[in-house]
Amino acid sequence: MVRKSNVQPHSAHVEQPEIDISVVVPFYNAGRYIERSIKGLLAQSYPSTRYEIIMIDNNSTDGSAELVRKYSPIRLLVEPKQGSYAARNRGAAAAKRAIIAFTDADCVPAADWLERIVASMRVPWAELVQGGDCLPWNLLLC
Question: Residue 50 and residue 48: Cα distance in Å, rounded?
Fold first, then answer.
């Protein structure tokens, strides 16, 4: 997860603003399991008004995109350049929320996944959250 804009960290003296999240999910021929991922994302305990789900079809030929279209809250994009990085970048560019969370179509997130991301991002020195753990940015350079 990365900050897209200047989300203010936690402060004991200031009321904490709500944090909005864009969830970016690239997929390629994920028809066997994509609906489990979608259902996990839609069942988040974090308020549904505080996050958007963007799924990026990366040239699937197995009907994956048609499965995604069944779920109206999800924004479906297409990335013709093959590769998960191209698809992730397409989703990140389309994201409208302050935080961008990435996951894959074969992952089913825990119901509190987004809540844990928000809690971790509220740590004052947090710049990056990986797998729910907070890492100071300067440690990533070691």
Answer: 5
Complete DSSP assignment for 100-132: EEE--TT----TTHHHHHHHHHTSTTEEEEETT
59-107 residue pLDDT tens: 999 999 999 999 999 999 999 999 999 999 999 999 999 999 999 999 9
- Residue 89: partners with Cβ closer than 8 Å, 6 or more residues away: none
Secondary structure (DSSP) of 15-29? PPPP--EEEEEEESS
Residue 78 counted as domain residue: yes
31: domain range? 18-110
Q: What is the pLDDT of residues 35-60, one digit of tens each?
A: 999 999 999 999 999 999 999 999 99
CATH number at residue 44: 3.90.550.10
